[in-house]
Amino acid sequence: MTTTVKLTLSNHEVNRLFTRELKNGVNFYQKLMSKVASLLKSCKEQRVYALLSLYQMNEAVNTLIQKFYDEIDKFEGVLEKKKHLAGKKITYQPVHFPEVCFDSALASSLVELFEVYDHFISLLKTLRTAGCFTNDDDYFNNLRRAFKEVNRLLSTLLVSSVKDLPLITLYEVIHQKESYQLHTQHHGEMDYSLLYKALTSNVAPRLEEKIRQPLLSCLNKRLEHECEPLSSHHSEERGAA
Q1: Which strand (E) or helix (H) includes residue 151?
Q2: Domain boundary among 133, 148, 163
């Protein structure tokens, strides 16, 4: 099922994310969502490194979203100090209505990112109009910083290569199959706690319960086993004392 949502954006700078073309003429946003689709497809094939990549990208998006919310709270406090604006509600007229994907957890997070980014840009412009910046350099520095943070994050996803990720499955990792053992000889052990977070998050593919529960059970045992040496060490220290 393909699900889309129509955004209501007030700023050209944000809408540019949906109209921008790459050097080869390919639409930036379409290319971005193509990468997301490739990651999702690999996750449905239970490729563990694709799942970790998707989870970590979603976490990075959510971190930036929260940063924008914190910045908005801070700057709204500055605006509130203007006596003639105190208690007044400021609204921003939407002028751009791009239709975007809303069919995965990461797509949903990106929608929230676009909207909070748009709100932040609108707020910066309002602060400038109200004379809250010491000079225009402060305004443009904040504008550029926000643009760079969003662009850096989206570019990281854009340049990620799904085909370069190891073809190792969840089953092979959790059950320590030979293919995974060979992989660890060159790349080290998997972070099982991170894998558990990814597998139980909303970005994980919808596995049948008869597959999901045994995987989680094995993963829990693996995590418990990793903690045993540390617990035993502490017990020995207490005994010696």
Answers
A1: helix 136-159
A2: 163
